[in-house]
Structures are given as structure tokens and as C-alpha cells.
């Protein structure tokens, strides 16, 4: 699985199976993710699972990639004629998707499982989360940031630094707090998340916006 692309396209049927797998993980933990259990839950054959995903690590990798695919960016990024307020909305859309996915029960379950396995010899889940999750999201987000720079909305020298700043402003310490079971008001509702993300994007533009550095 290591040679597969960061942004994988899944068929609608494969997405149904991966949703079933995520549901099993949330409800039953690591032991619930077996080919037999997933085949029953998703009403598909074991042969189909092996064909689509390979072994159990392949299923986990696909689950992570599928979760990461839910964090979207505006198609085509930002062209020279794209207004600044529209581009800002693109960044806010990315931020809301990011916060929605990472605060959801499936992503929290995957991250808790990776932490629990971190000291286990041969465990690859942490590496899979980085390669198929964070890295895929980072790749799409950096493309959006670079599009904003080309359009003259942003100024920065290092795309990775700009991405990590935006990522940090959106998430802060919320992901850790959520994994520990703490209630985080910013994730209470769609409106609360949108308000939090809009504030984070405002702060990002104060640092990297073209007007802020003119």
C-alpha cells in the first residue's frame, strides 16, 4: 500500500464499505476491524474486500485516506480574477471541513487507536495516519495557499510554514482535548465551527495577507 497515491478515488460502493468500517471502529474498537466482521457489516464478500483493499493494514489505510478525502479544497484554486473575499471563503471552507473531520468520532477513534499502538512493535497505523491523512490534507491545502499567493491575496516564502500556521490556528489544541474526552465548545455545531474557523482565517490573513504586509 505504500506506493499508492495520496489522493485516492473510491467508488460509491467502496465508500459505503469504508463508512461501515469506520462505524465498526467507533462502536467496537480495534478488534471489530476484521475482514469477516466488515464483510457482514457492509454486506459484501471477503473476496471484494481483498480485491479493493488488500490486507487489514490496507483496510486501515483506505479508511484514513477516505477520511482525509472529506477535507476538500475549492476546485481550481484561486485564479487571477478570483476576488479576495471568495478566496477567503475557500480557506474557510477548507477549515470547516478539517475541523469537522478531525473532531468527528471516526477520526478520534483512529487517532486513539494509533496512540494505543505506538509502542507496539510492527504497528504501522501512526505512519499510515501521517502518510494517508495529514500528508494528503497538507498537499491539497498547500496547493490552495499557493493559488492564493499567485492571485496576490497572500504573501509568504515557505508554503509549509504557511500551511502549518493555518493548521495550528484552526485546530489549536482542540484535537488533543477531544481525544482526551474534553468538551470543546467550538465543535458544538456547524455555526460554532464556522465562527471559530472564520476567526482563525482572519488571524491568518493578519500574518500572511497581502494587505497586512504592504
Any key phrases for this structure?
214 residues, mainly alpha, Arc Repressor Mutant, subunit A, Tetracycline Repressor, domain 2, 2 domains, elongated, disordered N terminus
List strands and helices in order, with pairings.
Blueprint lengths: L11 H17 L6 H8 L3 H8 L2 H14 L14 H19 L2 H13 L7 H26 L8 H13 L2 H6 L10 H19 L6
Plain-language structure description:
This protein folds into two domains: 55 residues, Homeodomain-like (Arc Repressor Mutant, subunit A), CATH 1.10.10; 129 residues, Tetracycline Repressor, domain 2. By secondary structure, the chain is mainly alpha-helical.
Overall pLDDT = 90
Element-by-element helix/strand order: HHHHHHHHHH
Strand residue percentage: under 5%
As an assembly, this protein is single chain
Task: Characterize this entry briefly.
The chain contains ten helices and no strands.
